[in-house]
Amino acid sequence: MESFEEKVNSRLDENGEINVKDILDLFWRLKWWIVGAMFAALLLGFIYVRLQTPTYERTAAVMLSSGDSSTSSELALLSDLSGRRMTRKIDNEVYILKSPSLMQRVVEELGLETRYYRYFVPIGNGHIHILRGLFDVKRGEYYNDNPFALRVENDPLYPDELQPQSIYIKFKNRGSQNLIVKKMMINGKKVREAKGRYAYGEAITVGAHKYYVDMLLPAEMIDGDIYECIRNSSFRTAQGFLTRLDAAVVQGSQRYANASDVVALTMTDAIPRRAEDILNTLITKDNEEARAFSSQTTRATVEFIDSRLEEISKDLGDAETQYKNYQASSSVVDITSQSQLALTSDQAYQDQLNEVRMQLRILDMVASYLAETPEGVYKVIPTNIGITDTGLNNVIASYDNLVAERNRMVANSSESNPRVVSMNSQLEDSKKAIELSVDNLKKVYSIRENELRKTISSSQRSIANIPQQQFQLQQLSRQLDVIEPLFLLLQQKREETQIALYSTADNFRVIEPAYGNTRPVKPNSRMIYLLMLVLGFAIPPGIVWLRTLLKSKVETKKDVEDRLDASVLAVLPHNKNGSYALIPKNGRDATSEAFRMLRSNLQYLKDVQVIQVTSSVPGEGKSYVSANIALSISHTGKKVVLVGMDLRKPAIRKIFKDIHPDDHKSVVSYMIGKCTDIDSMIIPSGVSPTLDIIVAGPVPPNPTELLTQPEGEKIIRYLRDKYDYIIIDSAPYLPVSDSFLINSYVDATLYTVRSNYTSLKLLDEVADVMKSASKPIRNVSVVLNDLDLDANRYRYGYGYGYGYGYGYGYGYGFGYGYGYGYGDDEKEGEEGKQTLSKRVRKGVDKLTGKKEEE
């Protein structure tokens, strides 16, 4: 037989499918509970939504400028040779956007270190004083419209690390002049001495520091309301805002998935305007910082040019002075036409030599600049100072870009950052490339200079006849010709660099400033209401299902059918007239109809005349069932006799109160031999002319021994010939063996199970007994008694445990008692027979009234 757990868990019909009808029937019977639970869940969801602070989302889109994003061919070649991959700049920029130092500058720019709050009622306008006192639980924040302000005066003698990093003040407004500090915390520790009444603007002294709460807008302060002000360090505040900031690169197409330079900045905040200000200020600060780092190269170039101009200006002034002094002292005139041709040729070579010397001088300056830079220190190299070699200019420009980007990374992180370490290696490679290029160019220019000198020497020999004064004048002129172009070149480069300093492009171009929906992203009221509706719908069936799994007692007919392989002939409703009430002959109540149903179902049992009514334990209503089924059958005109064979706790005389039985004419009397006429034991019931009764008689000390005698079977065999039906009220089946002895000469057994009383474990015991080969129950049918239809309409689970018994001290099974307390001792041998005989004699003496002889 399928176990109960399998039946409950599967809930399958005969075809192996879910019994949808039963499920729908359960939901229909619970409809009002479900409606109530859904309403309560919606109410709780509404309260939860009202208590939550709405959170809004704002998004800004920016694109990285591509002005300096390219990498020179030399650095790309060095990267390939070194095996190190060049880091994408967009990844670095995303890292910088989310850096605490950048957000700290945003916090300081917007003044977000101090935040102000007010507690209010989440429902209504918040001006009802009773509601404010009971439901003042929601906290709203001010932003640039706070009616009060916190002012702090720190002791200047304290070092920065000892200054308060966090301040918390919670106070109640009293009028327009006073406040009551309810709670104050400095660096997370309560300051109990700060509690009390203060005037606005009055100092709250804690140690060496003073704190003031200043009134700004008295009209906005509500008397009796609770307010808060919280101040943290800018770095801690920045960390708090960073937890709600997200920066991500917008992915491009599938082919160029990693080639996008667009960054989406998203921030959530309870105040949407503050989120917009933070995002827009964050972009502005990042551009300002990028421009500052990018201009480092330009500023270094300007400083370098200024230093060189100062030196060259002095040399130029000295050369001009010498030229003028020589002209004045030597009375030099214009060069003659005879020497013009030679001088022209010589001048061309001199020009070339001057250019070579100037390039060598510039290369020496670059080499000296690199040599003066300590190892591990990276400074930008001045560019645009007159180097004519394009390759060297490209290498220097790429090196300066890497230096600027590295210094920016160090400013936002540290020297040990893996990206900084990677860029150090790249800078060392670039520096070596610059030194190698400078050395090669110097060698080339040196060779060129030597060749030009030889050519000029040859040319000068051809003009040896030029007057010495004119020759000296030309030498001075040549010196001017060397210094003056360099001076003019540096002047030009300085102006160009100054223009570049003020024309640096922003690091990010704003595509979309901060924007967002007016609807908050949290809490999602629609989803919450939907979840609460589902939860409210599921709670009542869930409780029923859970209680069904946890119930310990029989409640419905299905509980019996799931555990016993026996048919349930009838379900008897709860009898409101009393435990031992008899049904009327023409009654139309539910109890009378239930017994008529039981009577009708008994007719379908073939060849059944003697019916034993029993139960598992006392209190299940077997006597009530046996009396009323006998009465119901008698109402059809059948001759019925009700035999009381519960020798331990007889109850028939309590049910039929109009009868006056004689204990000397009872079942016990017949069994002990004091009554030999069975007809004399039969008495009319007084409620039906065709119903007779045989009572059990006095309680004997040895009921089991008496039932083992053949007299019980003789009574039943005699009554078979006189009555159509014989109903036997016997003892419970499980605790003692009385009913087992009677069951051997009956035709059918009506097993009584009481709703909300009989334990489910007892049904498992009954099922084992029914399948037992040693003590089988004959032709078992079940009657479910005392079913409360109204209660079981919704109830499916009950607690464990119950108490019952006769108080005689006999214990059996699950904690129920059934016995007499005299000790049910059965001994073997002669001693046992003497004890049994003695008990029987005591029973006879009790019936006859004869005292035991001493």
Give your account of this protein's structure.
This protein is α+β, with helices and mostly antiparallel strands and 854 residues long. The protein is 47% helix and 16% strand. It is built from 25 helices and 24 strands. Helix 6 crosses helix 8. The chain is elongated. The protein starts with a helix and ends in a 6-residue tail after the last helix. 28% of the residues are buried. The N terminus and C terminus are likely disordered.
What does this entry show, briefly?
By secondary structure, this protein is an alpha+beta fold. 47% of the residues lie in helices and 16% in strands. The strands form five sheets. An eight-stranded mixed beta sheet has the order 15-22-21-16-20-17-19-18, sandwiched between helices. Strands 2, 3, 5, 6, 7, 8 and 11 form a seven-stranded antiparallel beta sheet that branches.
Core attributes:
alpha+beta, 7-stranded antiparallel sheet, 16% strand
Question: How do the strands of the widest beta sheet line up side by side?
Answer: 15-22-21-16-20-17-19-18
Number of helices: 25
Write down how many β-strands occur, each being a DSSP E stretch of 2 or more residues: 24
Class derived from helix and strand content: alpha+beta
Mean pLDDT: 78
Largest sheet: 8 strands, mixed
Helical percentage: 40-55%
What are the segments in which pLDDT stays under 50 over at least 5 consecutive residues?
1-17, 68-87, 253-257, 794-841, 846-854
Q: Taking Cα atoms only, what radius of gyration do you get, to the nearest Å? A: 56 Å
Strand content: 15-25%
Our measurement of the CA-to-CA distance between the termini, rounded to an integer number of angstroms, reads 60 Å
What gross morphology would you assign? elongated
